[in-house]
Amino acid sequence: SSPTQRTPVTPTLCSNLSAFKSLLRQSRALDDSIILRLNRASALSRSMADGRGSQVGENECEGFWKELTERWGERGEVLRFCDAAVAQGTGERELPVETGLSREITLKGRGESERDRRQIHTEIDVESIVRARSLAFFASRC
Fold it and tell me: Coiled-coil annotation: which residues (predicted)?
């Protein structure tokens, strides 16, 4: 989403994995389109320079870099916030000793939080892959 249409990041968003992943998917659209956008800019540069060179113009590169790093920063904030929020959810729950039923419910809640944390860590790993791929392609064109 654009900076004016930011989705508020709350612990509820972090525990709703489909909404969390949807937010990341929307934000990663820029990274996903980097090859197309930079190839298009490169082709335009070549046509203007009578076919010489494949580098993208400096202004286009600067603008694209700024947009790309802003998105990386936004996603980094979301990932850090959600990792901390879910970690707090797993660490603060204590197992009650009263009845078997309440213990079962608490254990289920803890398991879901741990699952959420694993999913967030998976998304952190994906983020590093996405950034490396985008950076490598960006460096090859700019």
Answer: none
Tally of domains within the chain: 1
Q: What is the pTM of this model?
A: 0.69
For residue range 43-52, list pLDDT tens digits in order: 776 666 555 5
Burial of 136 (C-beta count, 10 Å sphere; 0-12/13-18/19+): exposed
Cα distances from 142 to residues 53, 61, 137, in angstroms, run: 11, 6, 9
Nearest partner of 82 among 40, 124, 46, judged by Cα: 124
Q: Give every CB contact of residue 34 below 8 A, 6+ residues apart in sequence.
A: 64, 68, 134, 137, 138
- With respect to residue 45, please indicate whether it lies within any of the assigned structural domains: yes
Question: Is 74 inside a domain boundary?
Answer: yes
Residue 34: inside a domain: yes
Interval 23-33: pLDDT, tens: 999 999 888 88
